Task: inverse folding
C-alpha cells in the first residue's frame, strides 16, 4: 500500500491539465480495436498491442500513415473514426471517480484543460460521449499542435489561453511523454498509474506526484487548502 500523500504544491493551484486515454477514460481497448479494424480492412492482418503502441505519438492520421498507403489515409481515417464512434458506448467509460473529481475542481473555479495526443475527431467523440466536454475550458489535441508530446507546445498553449503561470499549473497523465511535456513547460506533473502502459518507466522519470488509484488523487485534491488560495471559492 503506498504511503499516504501529503498535499504539497509550490504555489497556488489554479489550472489542471488532463490527458485522456488511461487517465480520465478507460479507452485503450477501443483504440487497439479501431486500429485493427483498419488493419484488417486495408492489410488483411491484425497488430499486437505493442505494435499499435509503437504508432502512438502523432494523432491517428500519423499512425495510419505508417500502415497504409499515403493516398489511403483519408479513407482509413474515416473508417477508424466510424468504428471508434460506433463502438464507443460499449468499450469506453470514465474511470470511476473521475466525474466527481471534475465536479469538485469546477466548483472551486479551477481552470480545467485537456492535452492529449489523440486527434481532434476522436477526442471530440470521447469527451462528448462521456459527458465531460463542458468541464474543459481548453482542449488541445494532437491535431492542434505542430510538435506532439513530449514537446510542451500543447501545455504552453493552455497556459497562454488561461493566462496562468507555469508554477500554478499541474499536468495529470499516465505516460512518460506527459512528464517530459510538463517538464518542458515548467509545470508540475502528477503521474497516474491506474491504467498506465509502463508504470516502472513512468516512475523512473520521477514525476512530482504519483497516484496509484483515482481515490488517491481525489484525496490529495480534497486535502489541498483551497480556501486559503486567492481566486478560489468553496
Result:
Amino acid at each position: 500500500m503506498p504511503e499516504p500523500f501529503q498535499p504539497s504544491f509550490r504555489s497556488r493551484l489554479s489550472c489542471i491539465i488532463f490527458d485522456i486515454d488511461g487517465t480520465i477514460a478507460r479507452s485503450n481497448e477501443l483504440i487497439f480495436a479501431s486500429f485493427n479494424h483498419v488493419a484488417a480492412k486495408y492489410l488483411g492482418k491484425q497488430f499486437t498491442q505493442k505494435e499499435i503502441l509503437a504508432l502512438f505519438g502523432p494523432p491517428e492520421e500519423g499512425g495510419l500513415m505508417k500502415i497504409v498507403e499515403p493516398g489511403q489515409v483519408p479513407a482509413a481515417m474515416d473508417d477508424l473514426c466510424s468504428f471508434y464512434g460506433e463502438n464507443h458506448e460499449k468499450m469506453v467509460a470514465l474511470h470511476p471517480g473521475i466525474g466527481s473529481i471534475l465536479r469538485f475542481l469546477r466548483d472551486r473555479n479551477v481552470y480545467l484543460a485537456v492535452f492529449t495526443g489523440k486527434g481532434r475527431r476522436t477526442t471530440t467523440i470521447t469527451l462528448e460521449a462521456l459527458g465531460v466536454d463542458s468541464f474543459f475550458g481548453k482542449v488541445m489535441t494532437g491535431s492542434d499542435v505542430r510538435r506532439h508530446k513530449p514537446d510542451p507546445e500543447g501545455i504552453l498553449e493552455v497556459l497562454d489561453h488561461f493566462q496562468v503561470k507555469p508554477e500554478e499549473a499541474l499536468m495529470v497523465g499516465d505516460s512518460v511523454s506527459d512528464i517530459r511535456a510538463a517538464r518542458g513547460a515548467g509545470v508540475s506533473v502528477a503521474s497516474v498509474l491506474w491504467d498506465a502502459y509502463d508504470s516502472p518507466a513512468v516512475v523512473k522519470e520521477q514525476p512530482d506526484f504519483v497516484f496509484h488509484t483515482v481515490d488517491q488523487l481525489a484525496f490529495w485534491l480534497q486535502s489541498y487548502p483551497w480556501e486559503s488560495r486567492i481566486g478560489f471559492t468553496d
